[in-house]
Amino acid sequence: MKKLLLLPLLVLPLLTGCDGNKEVEKCRLTFGSKMQEGNKDAIKELSNSELLVKTRDQQEVFLLAVYQDQYSEECLCWKTYKEVLKTYCYKYWGLVYTYNAHNQDETLSHLKIEKLNTSTPYLYIFNGEKLVKKFSHANNKQRKIFEDTSAEEMRTQICKYVDNPSLYYVDEENISNSEPQVVMFMRNGCSDCKYALEEVIIPYINYVYIWRPIFLFDMQKYYDLSKYPDASEEEKAYYQNLKDKYGLSEAEDNPFGYQQGVVPTIQCRDYGKVRAAAVYFNDVVDKREDGSYYISDSYYSEERKEIPTEPYTFPNVLKGMTLTEGVIENNGKYYWSQEAANKYHKENFVAFLNAFNLGWNCLPEK
Q1: What are the backbone dihedrals phi and psi of residue 276, each rounded to the nearest 5 degrees, phi first?
Q2: Is residue 150 exposed (0-12), middle (13-18) or buried (19+ Cβ within 10 Å)?
Q3: What are the tens digits of pLDDT across the range 322-352?
């Protein structure tokens, strides 16, 4: 197999677009969605707190379609634009958030979202708290964005300011058995998944050019279903069966699984098989008789490091490591704090991202 020189970081070149005669820096949308069944998951209404978190804390690059409470809801212009949004999401794997301008309070005043007693809808592009571009139905030159139900005008104008996402939410239909993919299995209610996305994945894609997208498979609804008190036996078993199906759980024929399957797990998949994987956190901490703490089980073991996964190899073996900081005791169990564990897990995860971002065709022989 051919060798590949891996770089620790591949920096994005500066991209530019046109706004009249002015040059603007192009950024990359953070998320897209290939979950197109009725576009239910591609268009989401945001509350004040959710919008604040996306802009201030998560620094997401996103599209925000804004309407004016009952003034818009009673008007054909907003109804038409909602159809445009559905088409845009379906045709271009887009993800758009909607927001009622009349709900905003002082916590969002710095975003300067227009609040009017008219029906005028707006489209905003935000990069964190920074406004990238604002489009208004009241602007005759921009009105076609809100009225062209083919969504081609919306797509054309958006592409002047932002590039396609590197992260796409997917469902099972999008997990291929015929081509290489990187898929991150996660749950939106999982704090470790949130940590990995916000602290590693999103900063990485903001500074490194991703040749192929990373797919995000959110397993939360299957997890929730398994926990319902009145769930059937089939429903209770479905979440575990799903982890088994996609190779998250360890088995004789799948050395890249870990325990019964944990999230977040990111995999390089090729023709339906797992070729390499990385796990964030989920280490098991125990206490020795001498009072010292150590990692009794981890995905990152000497045995797993010996499995050929060129061009990927993780730098930090964690199983068996003595812990000198960050150990938390709760109800007789021991845990490694996210802050302490991140020092090691981040390096392992970034090594995975580097390897399979730069080495898509350098997969182990089947």
Answers
A1: -170, 160
A2: exposed
A3: 999 999 999 999 999 999 999 999 999 999 9
